[in-house]
Design goal:
Nuclear Transport Factor 2, Chain: A; 7 strands
Length: 146
């Protein structure tokens, strides 16, 4: 399969978007996270214990929910991208170890293995996520209470 220069560029830009998302989440840089989604994106993290809703609601929840994790390490791989003009669909494997610490400093680590199933759109600012569904595949360890 021969790709056009535009298709190569789109794939690199989408990969950069996915990496930017992981960086934003792991560094808790929510202004950077805003550059990953269209303002009214549909986001669904229910299968991994989260919420579903429009991006602003989910962003607020992420800020609160991720505050208890001093460390999260999103690693993305096996990304499958189907381009269709100014739109695309993607399916990307995520491996996400997360760490909590109790009041005595004891660490508890659990890992979420999931797929991000995305609908992406090209905007004037570049590629953005218009719809994200996280499909949990495995959970090693257990989610903390609350």
């Amino acid at each position: 399969m021969t790709l056009s220069l535009q298709e190569i560029s789109d794939r690199i830009e989408i990969n950069d978007l996915l990496t930017r998302y992981a960086t934003a989440i792991d560094t808790k840089d929510y202004e950077l996270l805003d550059t990953c989604f269209v303002p009214d994106a549909d986001v669904d993290y229910v299968s991994s214990g989260g919420i579903a809703g429009k991006y602003p609601e989910v962003r607020a929840w992420l800020e609160k929910a991720l505050a208890i994790f001093p460390v999260t390490l999103h690693s993305l791989s096996n990304s499958e991208i189907e381009l269709d003009g100014d739109g695309a669909r993607g399916r990307t494997l995520v491996n996400n170890p997360m760490c909590t610490r109790d009041s005595e400093g004891k660490e508890t680590i659990f890992t979420v293995y999931a797929y991000y199933e995305d609908e992406l759109v090209r905007t004037a600012e570049g590629w953005r996520i218009a719809k994200r569904f996280e499909r949990q595949a495995l959970l090693q360890g257990s989610l903390p209470g609350g």
